[in-house]
From TrEMBL:
PANTHER family: ACYL-COA DEHYDROGENASE, ISOVALERYL-COA DEHYDROGENASE, MITOCHONDRIAL-RELATED
InterPro entries referenced in this protein's UniProt entry, alphabetically: Acyl-CoA_Oxase/DH_mid-dom (IPR006091), Acyl-CoA_Oxase/DH_mid-dom_sf (IPR046373), AcylCo_DH-like_C (IPR036250), AcylCo_DH/oxidase_C (IPR009075), AcylCoA_DH/ox_N (IPR013786), AcylCoA_DH/ox_N_sf (IPR037069), AcylCoA_DH/oxidase_NM_dom_sf (IPR009100)
Domain Acyl-CoA dehydrogenase/oxidase C-terminal positions: 242-392
Keyword Secreted: no
Keywords, ordered alphabetically: FAD, Flavoprotein, Oxidoreductase
Species whose genome carries this gene: Halobaculum roseum
Source domain of life: Archaea
Family note: Belongs to the acyl-CoA dehydrogenase family.
Protein name listed in UniProt: Acyl-CoA dehydrogenase family protein
Enzyme Commission numbers on file: 1.-.-.-
Cofactor list: FAD
Pfam families associated with the record: Acyl-CoA_dh_1, Acyl-CoA_dh_M, Acyl-CoA_dh_N
A GO term, aspect molecular function: oxidoreductase activity
Acyl-CoA oxidase/dehydrogenase middle domain ranges (all copies): 128-200
Length: 399
């Protein structure tokens, strides 16, 4: 086994790693391979985490959560990915953990008291955030889905893309314009967040789902969603009307650090698979791992991953810094480094396997698909570099 215990963890991080690792040990490589191939959500895995309260890792203790911080979340999600679940396995619970953040920070006390304890216990899932739109893409302020006040309700109409896990969620957080873009001084104004009861939306005939036939992260389904006169009670507005975009930004950097940790876990998994195969496979009378053409790409992948890992875990300790721009720099750097390292590592693992690299039975083809995805989500590598160029290097804004 490749030694990757290179980061000094706190006592609490070690406790999280061990507890979550024990759960992950119950789900082997075959479990994830089969669920990915079938496009099946891993209910057993997620339920096992929920039963131990891990979906409430970031929720305050007063609402039944564990009350932990980004440091512990990084350890938790890294452990899940590294266990064999990969990036997609971590993504099956990632949203359940982070979609509650707007409610914690901005929701009414009545809403928090009712819903958050159920989220912490796993009895209610907020697995879905509906933001991206076909025309807006990464330009989130350009969304056109609108929410119009009608008495004690909002009526929502619009179309969203890449809305994931709506098929396994009880609620979703929806971003919509409550003031048209042309009527606000800043393009970041006029967006609001809403908590949507998915079952109620289906019963009213206001949700139309079209599943996207994608090639990565098979255990998580994604959809094009059309909202047709969806009525949402006014008390399900999260926070202050027209300030939803700022609510989305709050906590975004911390989430990117967790994404980076998941990505590092995936990359280490790929390197280990490559090393194991390189030691076992013999050609021309010797193990292929004896050849530098095999050794060097795997060694380089390992080195890059350990650098990204060190940066990610170190940055997680600094998320309480009041300088949010600095936290943003750490988060975007970690995300960029981790995605580049994981992709190179997964590619090396596939190449090491030769023709077997595209055989599902060896898993590395899945790791490569997932590693490629990490260069696109939650933001592209180019957007991460844009942030660094403008906010760290002091270069002119490019967009």
């Amino acid at each position: 086994m490749v030694a990757t215990d290179t980061v000094q963890l706190t006592d609490r991080q070690r406790s999280v790693r061990d507890a979550v690792g024990d759960i992950c040990d119950e789900f082997d490589a075959a479990y994830w391979r089969e669920h990915d191939a079938e496009g099946e959500y891993p209910h057993d895995f997620v339920n096992a985490l929920a039963e131990e309260g891990w979906l409430g890792v970031l929720l305050p203790e007063e609402y039944g959560g564990k009350g932990y911080s980004t440091e512990e979340a990084v350890a938790m999600m890294y452990t899940i990915a590294r266990s064999g679940a990969g990036f997609s396995g971590a993504q099956t619970v990632h949203a359940a953990i982070y979609n509650s953040a707007p409610l914690v920070n901005y929701g009414s006390e009545e809403l928090k008291s009712d819903l958050l304890p159920r989220v912490a216990s796993g009895d209610a899932w907020i697995q879905c955030f509906s933001l991206t739109e076909p025309k807006a893409g990464s330009e989130s302020t350009a969304i056109e889905t609108e929410a119009v006040r009608d008495g004690d309700e909002y009526v929502i109409n619009g179309e969203k893309l890449w809305t994931s896990r709506i098929d396994v969620s009880d609620y979703l957080v929806l971003a919509a314009r409550t003031t048209p873009r042309e009527e606000v001084e800043k393009k970041t104004e006029g967006v609001s967040l809403f908590l949507v009861d998915i079952e109620r939306g289906h019963e009213a005939g206001s949700l139309d789902l079209e599943e996207i036939d994608k090639t990565a992260s098979g255990v998580v389904s994604s959809f094009r969603v059309t909202y047709d006169d969806l009525r949402v009670p006014a008390d399900r507005l999260i926070g202050v009307e027209d300030e939803g975009f700022y609510q989305v930004l709050d906590g975004l950097n911390e989430e990117r650090l967790v994404i980076a940790a998941e990505t590092v876990g995936l990359g280490e998994l790929a390197v280990e698979k490559g090393v194991d195969y390189a030691n076992e496979r013999e050609v021309f009378g010797r193990a292929i791992g004896q050849n530098q053409a095999i050794q060097h790409p795997l060694a380089a992948g390992h080195a890059r991953l350990q650098a990204a890992k060190q940066f990610t875990f170190a940055a997680a300790k600094r998320t309480g810094d009041e300088d949010r721009k600095a936290v943003g720099a750490w988060a975007n750097t970690a995300k960029y480094l981790a995605a580049e390292a994981a992709f190179e590592a997964a590619d090396a693992a596939v190449q090491t396997h030769g023709g077997r690299g595209i055989d599902r039975a060896y898993d590395v083809e899945r790791y490569l698909r997932e590693a490629r995805l990490t260069r696109l989500v939650p933001v592209t590598q180019e957007l991460a570099l844009n942030y660094l160029g403008e906010n760290v290097l002091g270069l002119p804004r490019s967009y």
